[in-house]
Design brief:
alpha+beta; Arc Repressor Mutant, subunit A; Serine Threonine Protein Phosphatase 5, Tetratricopeptide repeat; 4-stranded mixed sheet; 3-stranded antiparallel sheet; 11 helices; elongated
C-alpha cells in the first residue's frame, strides 16, 4: 500500500526513502515521497512535530513540550491534552519514531533531510570555503543557505521558541548573504555586480552591520564605482555618529583611506 493510501486510511506511515521536512516557510512533510503534513493533529500537532524535529538530537521533557505548545496559556488539563497529541503523533509515525514516555525523542529515518539542518550545514561549508579561498564552493553553499533561510521559520506560527528559531534563521540569512557576496567578489568578473546586490541587501536588512557596508564598498569599488563606494562609507559614518555617537571601525576606516589614496 502506498504512503498516500496509508494516510487516507489513518494508519501508521511507513517511510522507505525520500523523507524531507521543511521548517522554513510553510511546514511541509514528505514521508516516503508523499506529502503528509495534513495528517498532523491540528495546529498544536504541527507545532509539536516541528518542536520535536528541531530538538531531535536530544530528549525533551513533557514540561518542555507543554511550555512550547501553550506557554502561559496552558489549559488546566495540559498534560492530558499533550498526551492525546503525542498518542496521535505516535500512531501516525509509528512507535519506532517516537521514543520514550517521560522524556521523548523523535527518531527520523536515516535519509531524512530537514531544511533547517541543510541550511546550517551549508553556511558552515560556505564560511569554511571562504576562509580557504575556495570561492566556487563558497558560492554554491552560500546560495543553498540563503535560499532556505530567506523563507523565515514556520510562517504564521506564534510561540516563544518559534521566535527564538526565527531570530536564529534570520541571523543565518544575513551570514549567507554576506558569504554569497564575498564569494561573488572572490570569483570576480560578472559576479561583482551580484556582490553589490548582496551588499545592498545586507545594508537594508541590517543598517548598522559594518561588515555589510564593507562588502558593499568593496563590491562597488570592484565594479568601478569608487565614488559610490565613498558615498556608502559616508552614509554609514553619519548613521553611526547620529544613532550611536561612534565612528566606523578600524577596518572600514582603513578601507576608506585606501579608496581616497587611489583617486
Amino acid at each position: 500500500m502506498s504512503t498516500a493510501a496509508w494516510c487516507k486510511a489513518g494508519r501508521t506511515l511507513a517511510p522507505s526513502g525520500d523523507t524531507r521536512i521543511q521548517l522554513c516557510g510553510q511546514l511541509l512533510v514528505t514521508w516516503s515521497g508523499e506529502r503528509c503534513e495534513s495528517r498532523l493533529p491540528g495546529r498544536q500537532g504541527r507545532l509539536l512535530f516541528a518542536y520535536l524535529v528541531v530538538h531531535r538530537n536530544g530528549a525533551v521533557t513533557r514540561d518542555a513540550l507543554v511550555e512550547a505548545l501553550w506557554a502561559m496559556d496552558a489549559p488546566p488539563a495540559a498534560d492530558t491534552a499533550l498526551a492525546a497529541l503525542l498518542s496521535k503523533l505516535r500512531r501516525l509515525l509509528g512507535p519506532d519514531h517516537m521514543v520514550g514516555r517521560t522524556e521523548l525523542r523523535l527518531v527520523l529515518p536515516d535519509d531524512t533531510q530537514v531544511d533547517l539542518e541543510v541550511a546550517r550545514a551549508a553556511i558552515h561549508s560556505a564560511e569554511s570555503a571562504s576562509s580557504a579561498g575556495d570561492w566556487p564552493r563558497a558560492w554554491v553553499a552560500s546560495q543553498t543557505a540563503m535560499f532556505i533561510a530567506r523563507r523565515g521559520f514556520l510562517s504564521g506560527e506564534d510561540a516563544e521558541w518559534v521566535d527564538d528559531c526565527r531570530r536564529d534563521i534570520d541571523a543565518l540569512h544575513l551570514r549567507a548573504i554576506e558569504a554569497y557576496g564575498r564569494a561573488c567578489l572572490g570569483v570576480g568578473g560578472a559576479e561583482n555586480a551580484a556582490a553589490v546586490r548582496a551588499g545592498r541587501d545586507l545594508v537594508r536588512y541590517a543598517p548598522l552591520r559594518e561588515s555589510g557596508y564593507r562588502l558593499l564598498i568593496e563590491a562597488l569599488d570592484a565594479t568601478g564605482n569608487r565614488a559610490e563606494a565613498l558615498v556608502a562609507y559616508e552614509s554609514l559614518r553619519l548613521r553611526l555618529r547620529e544613532d550611536l555617537g561612534i565612528s566606523p571601525g578600524a577596518e572600514l576606516r582603513d578601507l576608506h583611506a585606501r579608496l581616497l589614496q587611489a583617486n
